[in-house]
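Quick one - inputs below.
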Amino acid sequence: MDPFGIALTTLVLFVSFGFMVGVLFGFFGMGGSFLVTPALLVMGYPARVAVGSGMAFVFGTAVIATLKHHDLGQVDYKLGGLMIAGTTAGIEVGSLLVYRLEELGLASGVIGVTYVLLLGAIGSFVTRNALTNDGGGTSGSGPHDGADDEIDPDDIPDIAKEIQSYRIPPMLTIAGGIQVSLWMVLGVAFATGLLSGFLGVGGGFIRMPALFYLIGVPVPVAVGTDLFEIVFSGGFGAFTYGLNGGVDLSIVAPLLAGSALGARIGSAATNIVNEDDIKIYFGLMLLGGSVAVAFQQAGDYFGIEAFNTVGFALIVLSAFAVGGAVIYSTVATMRAQTSVYTTAVD
Amino acid sequence: MIDLAAYSSAVQAAALVGAVLLEAIVLHVGYGALERVATPLVDRITHA
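Output:
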């Protein structure tokens, strides 16, 4: 039986895989193309279809996750719009750097090493920071700040306080009642776009921590605003690949059916799980990703196919482990809250 | 039935993006309705 033009087992696989990616995407604001495109390549789809369908999937999942974060008041549209402008300029410059490196014959090696080091460095920094509790650590479990709520100054990381102290007009009021210079926001957006364009990745793993650590936006709002930006980058990417027939709806539709539910759960979980736990899971996900990408880069460099397979297996394993931990942490927090509620009623 | 192949690649690509957007909105609304129905049921079971 081939509903929608694909085998039933493939359909079930796509829906389940989409669900797991959706949980991570809604929770962290990253991980779509990181997981889906390599999976489609492993399944034997041509690179154009794998990348294009991955982009379309990321676009659809970002729409759903952004709508859920919007319902929770966790999207700062003004900040998102500025981030889009700065990121777009950064991506252009980043891609120019890649062309320059290609002329020198260094692109593949430099980009690969930078990608692995950046994933590892951000992963280590975020995990260490959450464990030593610099910013966001006093929130505890329970409902988190929405975009319109004032943020506790103790929850703002030191680097963000430093950046907020440069009061170059015009000044903006953004999520959490934070006052920050327009030029600082555009500078951070440009830097994240530069890295994104240079590495050829969506950049959620760079933007989400940048919004929190460099600008001082509360973590759930950083995730929601990052996802809002991905709606536009993913939509543009899907359109570009769609022009050349790179988007296959028989792949995107079942993946999206699963991720729509997963993204709702992941997005809602940011409102339940402790902020430090979110950062620890995010950091562990990036550390797992850096080891996996290191294997894939080594596989490409030395021409060892087994390394690519090991790298992909590691990505899927770390994604499943972190996705499972997110769901477990959410259920445990909800059960603890129910227990407190029951005790209070009694 | 609309024959997309008769249109330019830009129109076809825009239609694909539109189809994904439509599916995303339908799924968001559908799962949202399911959540509204299921949440009170789950609450009733867990607080029973």
